[in-house]
Amino acid sequence: MILFDQVSKRYKGGNEALSNVNFHLHQGEMAFLTGHSGAGKSTLLKLIALIERTTTGNVIIGGKNLNKVSRHTLPYLRRNMGIIFQDYQLLYDRTVFDNVALPLIISGFSSSKVRKRVHAALDKVALLRFEKKYPVTLSGGEQQRVSIARAVVNKPALLLADEPTGNLDPDLSLEIMDLFMAFNQVGVTVLIASHDIPLIKQLGKRIVHLEHGQLLTADEN
Amino acid sequence: MASNSSSTENRVQLRQLRPSFSSRFKEFFIRHLQVFFYSLGLLSRTPFSTLLTAAALGIALALPAGLYVILDHAKQLSGDFDSINQISLFIKKGVSEKSISKLQKKLSTYPEIAQVKHINREDALKEFQENSGFGDALKALKDNPLPHLLIVYPSLTHNEPEQINQLLLDLKKLPDVDLVQLDIQWLQRLYAIINIAQRGILIIGSLLALAVLLIIGNTIRLAIENRRNEIVVMKLIGATDSFIRRPFLYTGFWYGLFGSLIAILLVNFSLMIISNPLAHLSSLYNNNKLFSLGLMGISSSLTLLLSGCILGLLGARMAVGKHLKEIEPK
Ligand SMILES: Nc1ncnc2c1ncn2[C@@H]1O[C@H](COP(=O)(O)OP(=O)(O)OP(=O)(O)O)[C@@H](O)[C@H]1O
Ligand SMILES: [Mg+2]
After folding, report:
1. What's the CA angle centered on B141, arms B135 and B143, to 5 degrees?
2. What is the ipTM of this complex?
């Protein structure tokens, strides 16, 4: 599902954020990406979401080489991915419902389908009763769950999350991780960047460790 | 799709739930309609600044539109005068009445000529004696000093200035004709002035259309700047450029529409203000037909509306095309 083939990324005016990374995540697999601050975790996720492009090497997602994806086809690729950001990236002038509905509206679903799907997604993150609220009136954990609902509402094959539990207390963090595990169980490929080593060790999934842009343990199965 | 994955990975196509084609087709229109009114809703959230922008557009559009309407009326007015276009042919002395009536018949068959009237020199003298007050003095003359006169009325299909000029040249060449005279040269001058004014309006109109484009472009640029975060989020979740562009295009459309509505109000208001003194002025000239402006016609109003909307869309398209690319997720 995700294949990194000798990938290096050098930011303009910076040193290498990723150097010669080889990494393979199978379909239906779930993995955690760890490493110190500045190790390159976010960079790796950004390469998958095509927010950044590789300097050298290939990233292949679902058989598609991202170097070959043009500006024009990029949006259609992103629709296949659910992306969860540490800072949620919600629209604060729209209700929770409208935020979660956005990916469906972009894809052109009918209003009745949109309503059904959004309700299902909000139900999964236990936020159904907040659908008419605005994100600012929600707590950080609730906003994070809204962003998760938005990421999964389109039923993507791949779920990416960057520090999804960064701001949350341990109980809530576990709850969120359980949510990801549940998505993984129904076949979604999941890749999560996280600092929280004790938490992710507890979950018994593959752990990928980055250090100064280099992959240390790939635990390949 | 085509991929050059050299890996051993058995290709796993990303599956994605997609709405059916017909559903997307139908949704496309529904969404367009929604965005259409959504963008109107956005504008109504800031009524004051929307009104200010629309007023600026209205003024920019009203100026050329108003001038055009006035010019249009002036042209129609000069058209009315065409019917009194007439050419006097003074016949050479010594030409017999018989050849004059022959000439009269011949001229009547010209397609450029509607009618030819013969004014007999004896009749003309009599009339002159009766009306001029010099009757007795004229009676003292042995000979009638007046020539025979043919009055030529050009046909309505041939009363453009150039055609009249050509007719004048042709008439001058006639052997029996001494002098050809068109008394209403001022009409030609009016045409010339109208011609210049038309070009002037074209120039003013083009400049102000450019101003409208710039105003709308700049307004949309600010709107894009204000919604930068939203655009980033949209792009992150897979919105195409055209999807993101849409509300801004409609915003430009609304601005163009409001601007041209204001322009129509302004033009009609101005016409109402000047129509009374103008009617008074024309009555002083004792015209049987009063020069009145009335209001803007339906077709010029629609033209103005349409130009406003097109300029709005165009200005927005330019701004969006330039600025959306610069906003990318980081
Ligand atoms: N836009 C950028 N321009 C230049 N350098 C960057 C940019 N983004 C990241 N970097 C650099 O690349 C390296 C990796 O950054 P990255 O954000 O991937 O780290 P990270 O592992 O996500 O760290 P954190 O845990 O703090 O989020 C860092 O040295 C960082 O300074
Ligand atoms: Mg990071």
Report:
1. 120
2. 0.91
- Write the pLDDT tens digit of every residue in A154-191: 999 999 999 998 777 888 889 889 999 999 999 999 99
Q: Which of A19, A1, A102 is nearest to A55 (CA)?
A: A19
d(CA B258, nearest CA chain A) in Å: 25
Residues in chain A: 221
Put simply, the answer to whether A109 touches B23 (Cβ < 8 Å) is: yes
Among all bound ligands, the one having the nearest atom to the CA of B329 is 1
Q: Name A206's bridge partners.
A: A31
Residue range of the domain that includes B233: 31-80+189-323
Do both B193 and B312 map to the same domain?
A: yes
How much distance in Å is there from the Cα of B231 to the middle of ligand 2? 22
Using a cut of 0.90, tell me whether the model's pTM lies above it.
no
Q: Residue A137: inside a domain, yes or no?
A: yes
Query: Residue B127, SS3?
Result: helix
| Opening angle at CA A143, ends A35 and A84, nearest 5 | 40
Residues of B in contact with A157 (CB under 8 A): 12, 14-16
Chain B hits for A68, Cβ within 8 Å: 2-4
Residues B58 and B156 reside in one and the same domain: no
Is the CB–ligand 1 distance for residue A41 below 6 Å? yes
Q: Among B155, B183, B211, identify where a domain stops.
A: B183
pLDDT digits (tens, 9 = 90+) for A2-60: 999 999 999 998 888 999 999 999 999 999 999 999 999 999 999 999 999 999 999 99
Alpha carbon dihedral B257, B262, B265, B270, in 10-degree steps, equals -130
